[in-house]
Amino acid sequence: MDLKQSVIAITGAGQGLGQMMAVTLAHAGAELALLDVNQQALDETKQQCLMLGTKTLTYQVDVTNEADVEQTFSDIVTDFGRLNGLVNNAGILRDGLLVKVKDGQVSKLSLEQFNSVIQVNLNGTFLCGREAAVKMIETDSKGVIINISSVARAGNIGQSNYAASKAAVATLATTWAKELARYGIRVAAIAPGVIKTPMAAQMKPEAIERLESMIPVGRMGDTSEIAQTVKFIFENDYITGRVLEIDGGIRM
Ligand SMILES: NC(=O)c1ccc[n+]([C@@H]2O[C@H](COP(=O)([O-])OP(=O)(O)OC[C@H]3O[C@@H](n4cnc5c(N)ncnc54)[C@H](O)[C@@H]3O)[C@@H](O)[C@H]2O)c1
């Protein structure tokens, strides 16, 4: 894929990994549709992309809302005329142990807490991936979809909801790669390790310390190291149906 000729949508583009992906793809000459619930954050990312001289539009949308996601992808095609790429990056953490025993009292992970993460990370990826595929087919855009998974997909303490959602989006990528190849659409996933972003900052310091001690390269990853991988997948037409593990060698 030639990024200079491409329109790329990024969810969760307001900060962290999504913001760095936007800046990196703007640098490569792609036109950008930036999606997030947070309009103020979107405006910040948009400013950075506009400074690089690329067409950039923002769409305030909750990726869990089916009607709004459908409308947003229709708007993107109206605004740009086509859609060549999607990064399914929006995601949240709501960590908690399945069951916790404190002072003899047993508490449990609520269904609401479990579902909140599944809604954004899995259902949001499903909805945006589905709508992007529809628009790519309708506009004959020959696109690429990238789902952002996580090293936690292998299973991680306190992350029943998050780990399950991240295993699922990796599986969606391999499934969609098989289903959508006939339309010229490639689909892949990236499973980042621990990356320095506002999301990682929500983790308890002792959890970060424990994780860093488990990383063979000895440090957390930089957002640019994931954004580079997004660019690489877009540009390499022989990648599909695979999950790229960009994690400094960590194994959960
Ligand atoms: N940071 C890490 O260490 C790490 C590691 C592995 C995977 N990931 C994944 O990478 C992605 C980005 O992570 P990050 O660290 O940049 O997170 P972040 O919290 O810094 O940014 C996430 C963005 O998603 C947006 N968002 C949240 N819910 C949304 C919704 N319902 N609809 C639309 N937008 C929504 C937020 O407003 C925010 O701008 C996530 O999917 C995350 O699970 C992160």
What does this structure look like?
With 252 residues, this protein is of the alpha/beta class. The mean pLDDT is 96. Helix 1 packs parallel to helix 2 and helix 3 packs parallel to helix 4. Helices cover 46% and strands 17% of the residues. The radius of gyration is 18 Å and the shape is globular. The longest helix has 28 residues. Bound molecules: nicotinamide-adenine-dinucleotide. Nicotinamide-adenine-dinucleotide binds next to helix 1, helix 4 and helix 6. The site of nicotinamide-adenine-dinucleotide (NAD) has 29 residues, from helix 1, helix 4 and helix 6.
Describe, in short, the structure shown:
The protein is an alpha/beta fold and 252 residues long. It contains 8 helices and 9 strands. It has helices at residues 16-27, 39-51, 66-80, 111-138, 160-180, 198-201, 205-213, 223-235; strands at 7-11, 31-36, 56-60, 85-88, 99-102, 105-108, 144-148, 186-192, 243-246.
